[in-house]
Amino acid sequence: MNDSFIPHADASLAQWLDYVANLHFKDIDLGLERVKKVAEKLDVLSPAKWVITVGGTNGKGTTCRVLERILIEDGYKVGVYSSPHLICYRERVRIQEKMLPEKCFTDAFDQVEKARGQISLTYFEFGTLVALLLFKSHQLGVVVLEVGLGGRLDATNIVDSDVAAITNIDFDHIKFLGKDRHSIGREKAGIFRTNKPAVVADPDIPDSVIRVAKEKAAHLRPIDQSWTFRPQGNQWIWESKERMLIDLPLPNVPLINAACALAVLHYFPKIISKEAIKRGLKGASLSGRFQMIDQKPLVILDVAHNPHAARYLLNHLTQFLKNAAKPGAKLHAVVGMRKDKDIKGTLDILSERVDHWYCAKLSEPRGAPAQILASFLQKSAFLSPDVKSAWNQAMQAANPEDILLVFGSFHTIAPVMSALNLRSTGDQ
After folding, report:
1. Cα angle vertex 118, ends 113, 124, to 5°?
2. Which residues lie across from 245 on neighbouring strands?
3. Rounded to the nearest 5°, which phi and psi values hold at 210?
4. Residue 365 — very low, low, confident or very high, per pLDDT cuts 50/70/90?
5. Considering the chain, what is the average pLDDT of its residues?
6. What is the pLDDT of residue 1?
7. Which of 16, 38, 387, 424 pairs as cysteine with 415 (C-beta 3.0–4.6 A)?
8. Where is the Mur ligase C-terminal domain (predicted)?
């Protein structure tokens, strides 16, 4: 525990984050007992009139973003808690799509510090309590919580949601969640609540998820059974037993995530208008999710960091290269990944499509060395000590008609966004 310097409300957010990062003896310490005790002291277990919790392996942030846009279009005052951030910590809390001033955060950090007493909290637990404090102080109609890791023992699970959703179930964080989809599904289903809707957007739903829903007496609402969707030309259709939405605009996010969001809203306590849904879908986008930057070469940023996300990225790339790329265009890829990820599984999926590789070490403790990344590639690669160096190498080597993909982690695309002076979602 770091007692050498305890910040105060007038300290900077950077000082608070440095303090909190060193407060607990483990970076990740799953469990709800400690964080719930502090939450009860702060009286933040009911941060809004309605709460939606979104878990899953990939697509959580995108699903939360679609929910946020549509709910705001329908007249709700909405708060979203998501992680990790890209450029600055304040991205983790959005209210009406905007980040809050630093002073709001430092005041909230100070309140949590005073309330915790001798209870030790991890970085994520502390930040979750800060988010809940900020939400409660703004008197919101709806709060959307993105699960950090897993579900059952994640800090966000101290709050009882009115609707829970699982976007998909695949392999990631196996050290904490288990080595098979059965175990991972059981952990993610821990966000389900008694007599509340539990939306699942994975068509191959593990038996463990069904079992948890029964044990908790949650109302399971799986894709292809309770609801479904399908493209129709330049539009798409979402359908349940009770409602059909036709002529929907195609969003600038994965369609499965948009469909999952519509399923959540279908089982929300209040009916959402079709007009709000259409407007929300048109405006929904999220930084770092197949984000195309009009440069020469064209730059694509994607936070894909596991095989499931890499498969989606490959499908998008293949379609784009087929329909929009100039003849003779080469694909250059800058990659940086954490060493605890399935590096081989992720790179294998993209290896045939990429023409030139640039491997970088991330500027954080868990970053895999560039040599490790390159060892899983069939082609030779440029090795760089950091993402910025790899990015500069790729930009110098690429021709104007080429495409430059940056992927592998939030920590990979953040330096590139900074180099391009790009703002992240919520930075308005």
Report:
1. 55
2. 238
3. -65, -40
4. confident
5. 93
6. 45
7. 387
8. 288-410
Q: How crowded is residue 399: how many other Cβ atoms within 10 Å of its Cβ?
A: 12
What tokens were used for 7? 């910040």
Task: Please state which CATH number belongs to domain 13-283.
Answer: 3.40.1190.10
Cα torsion 422, 346, 229, 206: sign: negative
Per 3-state DSSP, the chain is made up of helix, strand and coil in percentages (nearest 5) of: 40, 20, 40
Provide the CB-side half-sphere exposure for 308 (13 A, CA).
Answer: 15
178-200 residues labelled b (16+ CB within 10 A) or e (exposed): beebeebbbbbbbbbbeebbbbb
Which residue type sits at 48? Answer: A
pLDDT tens for 242-264 read: 999 999 999 989 999 999 999 99
Domain spans, the chain: 13-283, 291-419
Predicted pLDDT of residue 2: 47
Residue 233 tokens, joined:
């030309």
* Residue 345: HSE in the Cβ half-sphere, 13 Å Cα cutoff: 14
pTM, two decimal places: 0.91
Average pLDDT over residues 56-70: 96
Question: Rounded mean pLDDT of 115-127?
Answer: 95
